Structure formats: structure tokens, C-alpha cells
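Deviations from the work plan: none for this task. Representative record:
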Amino acid sequence: MATAFSATLPLHGSSQENRLLLPPTRLPPPSSFLGSTRSLPIRRLNHAHAARRSPVVAVQEIVKEKKPTNSLLITKEEGLVLYEDMILGRSFEDMCAQMYYRGKMFGFVHLYNGQEAVSTGFIKLLTKSDSVVSTYRDHVHALSKGVSARAVMSELFGKVTGCCRGQGGSMHMFSKEHNMLGGFAFIGEGIPVATGAAFTSKYKREVLKQDCDDVTVAFFGDGTCNNGQFYECLNMAALYKLPIIFVVENNLWAIGMSHLRSTSDPEIWKKGPAFGMPGVHVDGMDVLKVREVAKEAVSRARRGEGPTLVECETYRFRGHSLADPDELRDAAEKAKYAARDPITALKKYLIENKLANEGELKTIEKKIDDLVEEAVEFADASPQPGRSQLLENVFADPKGFGIGPDGRYRCEDPKFTEGTAQV
Amino acid sequence: MLAEDASFTVTHVHPMRTLDGITLPHVLRFLRFVTLPGKKKMAARIHGGAGAGAATALSTFNPKKLVAPSRTNLPAARSSKRCIVAAAGSDASKSLRVGHSQKLIANAAVATKAETSATTGTGHELLLFEALQEGLEEEMDRDPRVCVMGEDVGHYGGSYKVTKGLADKFGDLRVLDTPICENAFTGMGIGAAMTGLRPVIEGMNMGFLLLAFNQISNNCGMLHYTSGGQFTIPVVIRGPGGVGRQLGAEHSQRLESYFQSIPGIQMVACSTPYNAKGLMKAAIRSENPVILFEHVLLYNLKEKIPDEEYICNLEEAEMVRPGEHITILTYSRMRYHVMQAAKTLVNKGYDPEVIDIRSLKPFDLYTIGNSVKKTHRVLIVEECMRTGGIGASLTAAINENFHDYLDAPVMCLSSQDVPTPYAGTLEEWTVVQPAQIVTAVEQLCQ
């Protein structure tokens, strides 16, 4: 295992009750990483500073302290791309909320406001052939991956022009073209699928001898980290050295269950080394930090060195879903994170470092507003699925519906394409 | 310990050797496939030697001549003893010594005359697990995207030897030994299928796939639909299930009844070496997710299968024995109990039509319907539980579609709604036995 992630310092100035406050005994080297976790000795837990010796530690503050001002983390183009992506995510989700309350979409809709840095930070580093697997909070992952706002909005409205022809809905955003592998309603059930996509990448390279260094990024939440599938997949990914990055969007809440109330050891990043992969903790409200960590994790995977577990400390500004009254969370906590809004932070960074001016950013915001409005109009104008679509995609090979009493395959019945056949 | 006229025992059981030479006591148990004889003594039929005589007996089985059981040309050991021998895994021909210790169940794989090529005289004889292996290997040779994943499929060769030798030939990545995490590796297979591979996922015992139910139901069955048709999931999920020989409740489950409601999957059950190979190949080639149900007690059935390539249709049923009086629908191991009962019935003057439905989901209503229209009486014999089993669904389907053609209510013989007990006597009573089948037919045909 070539790398682990170094550093120690606490976040953003404030200490969380659930975070181990590590004494700032040394400054982390800006972008170097420690050696293999396996070679480090077992730590003695009664030692006062045992935490310092823990094999894999959190990454903090890569950005804030050390970079001299003339060496920025991003170029102007990159900065604007990141900004636009995050604005798109935010505007889209705000529009979703509006549309939901106007009765244009139904069911469970889970919004991503506040977590944009994680999606943008990771997905903007990926190529089109890399895969992304998400959960039910997947609108913004789909958008970052390249699925058009029109397709996502239409899918939410349940129209034929949706990315899944209206058959999936909010929790099932799939796109073959952009390698967005969903969208899963049950937590944890996407992680094995992501592991499989990574397996295919390795298989293509080693068995089919193709030139393939595609990676897979699996996003999921803190609640999922208590689920068996998570651990099973960490084991297999490390065992087979699969090119996958497990990204935990730790927003501290699983509907109404606080992460601290449900998890024996709330520091999720520590679970990586238990399986033999680096575990990294990063400030998920800062897109540049996320991006730095993501760069290393993705290139690790591309080099064939195996998986990484990245825990992003983040927060959702809205409730779990649009049906959640969000009464359990403390107003002070919400205010604290609202002050760390990733979009505001990036805007500040861009302006302070003269990468962009207000005007340019306003132009982007206007462009995105128009885009989202247009997506809504498109979705409104699109037709609803007809009856003929009912039976169409149940099987890839519709012979799977079997042979009817008349000897013909059910799918040959003309009523099949009408959606009214007996199957 | 078994039914009162049981007069059989297991004689020599030829120990199976694994690749590293260690015998497998637990596998030996499965090899004692014993069926109950009818009241008549029957000579044990032997499939032996070059196979010509026995194979002919098998393939040219003429139902009209059932009354006088045909002797083979090979010296038949006369006894009422009947047993299955676990022929040593790899080399079928070596185990074909005719002898006291090498008798095979006579009524194994009888009368598949429409489907075997033994009539042409060519073909090769092998055991059912070898047929599965052959089918799998041929498909892996044909398409490099076909891969296998499961517990102990690689170096161990599979706990029922279906994947023996494949890891040596294709490598550890193509025949992947997974850790014990059914949910995750089934999901991994599904993710791999979505991104271009064609995995064959083995459940060491079908019952273990209960742990993978989340993935099978939600992802395997549904993702093609919820993705609007964008992703196909051409997986084959296979493994042995059914009631074995005192394996205990958890290892004796029949998962076809649990999976049958999942939309988007197909389910097939193999019962002979011929259809095992054919269904395996068809399932691998299918773009749909297919669950292939094998049976723990059928892995050592021997049959001659064609040398040339063939596949079986996934959606079709198999006519085992044409008849006039009553339609008996069955699948997997119960086929053999039915055929056993059929001998008795024929002696009593009945003429049952036996159909192995093979496709558990969807049902081949054409073959079944034609039969019902001919005989007007239906008996379903299955190993599923009474409640919610395949038989229950089939009864509903027949009543719905062919009600007008029935002269008697559809009768369904299923296993008792009892967790399969360990004790041999109790276990026998939970599963349908040939005597019950005979009684049921007599009742229906009054």
C-alpha cells in the first residue's frame, strides 16, 4: 500500500464534540503522504498522544495554511467549472423543492443542499468513462456527472424524456452514457454495485487485456456505514485491490438519527485501515480540500493501488427529504454549517485570489438559473409515459415473459406493445 | 427408517476426491441418493461400461413397454437394492465398472427421448455436475466476458465440483473465490453485469442466497426497469437447493418459492444432465437475469448427452412421458419420484403424461395447456412448501387459463409447511413420496 494520508489539524477553527482534537504538534507537509499503514506498529492506547501515532489520520487544512499565495490550487477555468457545478446543484435542488410543493413531483425527494462540495470535488475530476454510484440523494451526482438538467427534471416529473423514461424517479438516476450507475433507494445496496463496476474495470485490464483505468466512486452517508454491505465491500475492494473510492458524506444525520447515537465509533475514516486501505477525513464543506483528497484517491485507484475510504464532513441544509419537518436538529448547529456554505466559501476564494470577479460569477449564476428554468419548462412540456411503456423494460429480452397458452411468446402478442397484454 | 417397503440401502459409495486429494465426507452424504422402490421389485439398471447398452436403455425408453422392464445387455446384479453411487468426480468412464458397488439409480433421467441424441449413437456420458461444468466451460471459452464468482468456486473447484478445474484454466480473476458475503458479491456480480461482464454467481447452497435477497430483488430484478432499459443485467445465479439427505432445515430450502414474485427475473430448474447443460448455456447467453436451480441430490445422475453443441430453451417445458389419462407437472428432483410412481401407475393401468416444467418463471402455458386439454386432469408434484410455492402459482395459472378443460380440481402435492427436520423418518414425511403420487392419481382418475 503506497500511500496513506497525512496531517492532523482540526477543522475550520471549531472543534466538534465528536472529533478527536489532535494537538498541533507538527505541521503537515503540504502534499506528501505517509507510507503504508501496514508497516506501522500497533499503537499503545494508553499513551496520551496515541492518536498522533495512529496509522492513518485525518487530512485537514491542506489548503488553508501552507500554500504560498502565488501557488493556487486551481486555475481560473477550473475554478469557474467548480463554481458553476455547485451553483447548478444548488439551484436545481431549490427548484425541485418549489416544484414539489407545487405538485409537479411526488414521493420521496431528497435534496442535496449544502453538500455540493463533495459532489463537485470528486466528480469533476472524473472522465466520462469513470462510474459514479450514489444513493437516493442523487440528483446532484447525476448533474455533476454530466446528465442534463432537462433529463433529471423530466425524470422527477415522471415524463418519458426523463433519463430513465420516468420509470425510476428521484431515487433512481441512471445514465449509461455518462456512467451514472444510479440512484438506489435502500441505503448500502449501491455499494456492491459500485464494487462490481470497479471489478469490471480490473477485469478488463487483467483478463481482457484492454487499456482500462476507469475508477468508480461510490457515495453514501453516515447511516450506511453501520450497514453490513458497506463492510463486506470494503473487504472485497481491498482484497482485490479494486479501483474504487468509497466516499462517505457524513452529514451527521440519518433522517432523525444522529450519527453519534447510532455509531459506536463515529470516526468513519478509521474503518478504512481496519480493512487495509487508507482512511481519510476531509472537510466536506470546502470544495478545494475535497478536490485535493479526491485527486490523490483517484490517482491511487488509477495506478492500481486499490481503494480508499474518504469521509467528508458535510451537512445538509434541508431536511432528510421534502417530507421531513426537520425538527430534531439544533438551530445552532444548522447556523454553524450555514456559515460554512461551500458555495460562499468558493466564491470568496475565487474573488480573494483574483481568479474571478463578481460579474463573472453573476453571469454564471444567471446562466444556471436560465438553464434550470428551461429544464422545468422542458419537463412540463414533455409527455407522460403511455400505456405502451408499461411492459417494455421489465426484461432486456422480453421472451422472459414466457409462452402463452396459444403457443406464442407473450411479447409477440400485439397487446404487449400496447401494455395491455396478459403476462 | 424409511417407508415400510423400502428395501434398499446404500452400498459402496465411491469417495469423491478433490483436487488436492482430500476426500469430502460431507459431500459423500449427498451422493446417497436413494429412492423408494415401488412394491414391485425391480432390477437395478446399470449404466456401465461403454455405455452403449445402458444408454440405449435410457434413450430408447418406450413408455408402452414399461410393464416389462427392459434388461440391459450388461450383467445386472439381481437385487432389490438400489442405490446411487457417487462416481468419482472427474473421470466418468473409469467409474463405469459394472459391479456391485457401482450401480446407479435406474430411473434416473429416463425417457428424455425427445431431447437426447443418444439415438444417433454418438454422444458422451457424464454426470449432471459435469454437464453443468461442460456447459459453463464452453460458454467461458466462447465469450471472455463470462466469469464465475462465488464461495470456493476457484481453488476448491466448487463444493459440488461444478467449477472444478476452471480456475486452473481461466485464472483466479475469472473464477473468483469470494469471501463469505453473499449480499455483497451478488451485488458485485450485478454491478459487473451492468458494466459489461456476464457473471455466473454461485450460491454454495441456494439457502445462502437469502442473504443476497436485497440484491436479487432490488437490483437484479429491477434495475433494467428503473433505469429505463439503459442497463442490462445478464447474470446467472445458480446453486443447489432442495431437500437433501438429512441436511437440516436451513440447508434444505426451496428458494424458488421466495424468488418467484420478483419481477424481471427468470427461473429455471434443471433435472437431467442434458437439460442441465442446455439450461446453463441458455442462461448464460440470455440477456435477462436467470436463476438456475439445481438440486443437491441430482448432481450424480448419469446420462449420455450429445457431443455437438446445443442449448435448451429457457421458457419451455419438457415432455418426459406422453400419456392420456392425467397430466403430472413436476420439476427437479420430484421428476424422479413421479417417474417412479409412473411405473407403478402403468402397472395399474393408468397412462400418466409427465411434464417437467423446467421453467419455473414464466410457466410454459403452451405445453402445459396442450396437455391439460388432452387429459383434463392435473396433478402437480413439487418440493416447495404448500404455502406460496411454485405449485400454488401453477395451480392458479391453470385454473385461470384452462378451467374449462378440467374434469377435476387441480391437485397439488407439495412438501409440508414444516422446517425440514434432521431425522430421516421425519424428513421423508415432509417431502412427497411416490406412494402419495400414486394415491393422488388414483383419486383424480376416479
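Chain B touches chain A through 60 residues (CB under 8 Å).
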